[in-house]
Design a protein that fits this description.
The chain is of the alpha/beta class. The chain is 37% helix and 17% strand. The strands form three sheets. A seven-stranded mixed β-sheet has the order 3-2-4-5-7-6-12, sandwiched between helices. It has a five-stranded mixed β-sheet with strand order 9-11-10-13-14, with helices on both faces.
């Protein structure tokens, strides 16, 4: 019996939620495999992708035994040549940290979606939160440079999923799609473009004619972006993948100078590819005397607060972070020199930490936890307090 496959790109106008849009963005990006364990509020992603991916000819879409298995399966699938994604929420993201550390060290392209919910521990399973910002950068042990994107709309859930895959493939690194439960579950109109209008980028491969016996998996000779071409297991290359400090051949060598050189390169490659990462979105910053910094659902609330402040004669603005790691430190430094800063977030203050570090001055925190974002009225009050300093 012939099975009729569904189209990979569902071009047109839809009214769907953010979790649905993430799946469609991943499929449009060309994922072949998906591994995850169900957990709210990310369960819709797991459920939908296990239906949708096989229907477009994907290789594997498995609900596996736990989050530890899922992230390691993703690493293996990526090294075998697949674009791959996993999705989870707080407790599951915690379980993935060791595997993510391995992925950073082995320069493994993959996308990990984290739909944030209240914590710690099992916390508030079906509620929203923004309490995993610091975990993204510091959740695994050791030093590594994280890349994380934060959508604030259903449309961006689709668009930034594609961007996350493109970055992951170009930089040879995990990319975290980090959003709060409200953005993942809310319903909005979304426009999916035609397949030929999408920009899809695949990882750098060994040049044609490469000697498979002498190929070095982490050799950056001639690579201005410091990203080595990636060969896959099963193609006949003599390659190694290890979490140990390794030479450009991949062979382990426990040496202080080599370790320093390797870690510095991992940081440098993320830094010099900064042009790939979405820049913050600016609202009314030209004459702003007080600026609120926010992401995700809190940024939507903050924008209304800025509009309300303007109506009352307060020159307020909004800086909406889209890429939270690497952190936009230069822009924060510049804004802090000419305006007071307010940070609005659904946590006890995780986002304000890097803001204050680069602002080099105290900033005002508008914090709300428990599942509901800070209201425009709360943020407006914060803007007024900051302006009176």
């Amino acid at each position: 019996m012939t099975i009729k496959l569904q189209p990979k790109v569902l071009t047109g106008t839809h009214f769907k939620n953010g979790n649905w849009a993430i799946v469609e963005g991943a499929i449009a990006s060309g994922i072949a495999e998906f591994f995850a364990y169900p957990i709210s509020p990310a369960s819709e992603i797991v459920e939908y992708v296990t239906y949708r991916l096989p229907a477009v000819g994907g290789k594997a879409a498995f609900i596996v035994e736990d989050e530890i298995a899922s992230i390691n399966m993703c690493i293996g699938a990526s090294w075998a040549g697949s674009k791959v994604m996993t999705a989870t929420s707080g407790p599951g993201f915690s379980l993935k940290q060791e595997g993510l550390g391995l992925a950073y060290m082995t320069e493994t392209p993959l996308v990990c979606v984290n739909i944030q919910r209240g914590g710690p521990s099992t916390g508030l399973p079906t509620f929203s939160a923004q309490g995993d910002y610091m975990q993204v950068q510091f959740g695994s042990h050791g030093d590594y440079p994280a890349i994380a994107l934060t959508p604030w709309s259903v449309q961006e859930c689709f668009d930034l999923t594609i961007t996350a895959f493109n970055i992951s493939e170009q930089v040879r690194s995990p990319v975290i799609l980090l959003l709060d439960g409200d953005v993942g579950r809310m319903m909005e109109q979304i426009e999916i473009p035609k397949k030929e209008d999408l920009v899809i980028i695949n990882r750098k491969r060994p040049p044609p004619g490469t000697d498979k016996n002498s190929f070095k998996q982490f050799d950056i000779t001639g690579q201005d972006d410091l990203v080595p071409p990636m060969a896959h297991f099963g193609e006949g290359y003599h390659i190694f993948g290890t979490g140990l400090t390794h030479k450009d051949s991949g062979v382990p060598l426990l040496d202080e100078d080599l370790h320093s050189e390797l870690i510095h390169r991992l940081y440098k490659k993320v830094e010099i590819n900064n042009h790939l990462y979405p820049k913050p979105e600016e609202y009314y910053l030209e004459d702003a005397e007080v600026i609120v910094i926010a992401t995700g659902i809190s940024a939507r609330s903050a924008l209304q607060a800025v509009l309300d402040a303007r109506e009352e004669g307060l020159k307020a603005g909004l800086l909406r972070l889209i890429t939270v790691w690497p952190f936009p430190k230069e822009q924060i430094e510049e804004l802090a020199q000419r305006a007071e800063l307010v940070v609005a977030e659904m946590s006890m203050g995780q986002l304000i930490w890097p803001v204050e570090r680069y602002a080099r001055k105290p900033c005002l925190l508008v914090s709300r936890i428990g599942g509901t974002p800070p209201s425009p009225a709360m943020i407006l009050e914060g803007l007024k307090k900051a302006r009176k300093k």
